[in-house]
Write a structure and sequence with these properties.
- The chain is α+β, with helices and mostly antiparallel strands.
- Helix content is 46%, strand content 20%.
- The chain contains 5 helices and 7 strands, in the order E-H-H-E-E-H-E-H-E-H-E-E.
- The protein is elongated and about 55 Å long.
């Protein structure tokens, strides 16, 4: 199978398609979701996660917010929460998907909610922004393209956004999941 190279627009479309707010196949979700619906999703997710924490006997405070057209659920404060993140956020991603399914079961609509545990996603976002900026600077200085390690769609989007803010460079994604990666090149 040959590797393909897509533009940043195609990458953002891939990420958007995986978490689209457009109608689902059965037309259950409208293109625009109001804040009341997002608050309801957050409440359902919070209840689901509260039960999960109780079953695990983990401490944690659950915070609900609505931002950028999605419910944001954060769990902070417990000592054992790092275990719910897992290596490179793999457990966090799985818990996010389970939480989305719990919300869908109750509402009948696919949710785009974002889950963060112990601030891992926020910290990772800043690491990736710095990686994007420093890689862009390296490409400007050397004039040579740089291929980064494979990343999740969330990670690639953060890097693409950071590179896009630097003049003189561009980024693309190449390969196929789970080995899809960002390539930064001179513009």
């Amino acid at each position: 199978m040959s590797e393909t190279v897509d533009t940043i627009d195609a990458e953002q479309n891939d990420a958007a398609a995986s978490e689209a707010t457009e109608e689902t196949v059965k037309g259950q979700r409208s293109a625009v979701v109001d804040d009341d619906t997002l608050v309801k999703e957050g409440d359902i997710a919070g209840d689901y996660l509260e039960r999960l924490l109780d079953l695990l006997d983990y401490d944690g405070d659950i915070d609900l917010d609505v931002e950028a057209g999605r419910a944001i659920v954060s769990i902070d404060g417990g000592e054992d929460l790092e275990k719910l993140v897992g290596p490179r956020g793999t457990v966090l991603e799985a818990l996010q998907e389970l939480t989305r399914l719990a919300v869908q079961q109750e509402t009948g609509s696919r949710s785009r909610l974002m889950l963060d545990i112990a601030g891992w996603r926020a910290d990772r976002r800043e690491e990736l922004r710095e990686l994007g900026r420093s890689t862009a600077q390296t490409v400007i200085e050397t004039g040579e393209r740089v291929r980064l390690q494979p990343m999740s769609p969330f990670e690639r989007k953060v890097v693409h956004d950071a590179v896009a803010a630097v003049d003189g460079v561009r980024s693309e994604s190449e390969g196929e999941d789970p080995k899809r990666r960002v390539v930064v090149s001179p513009a």
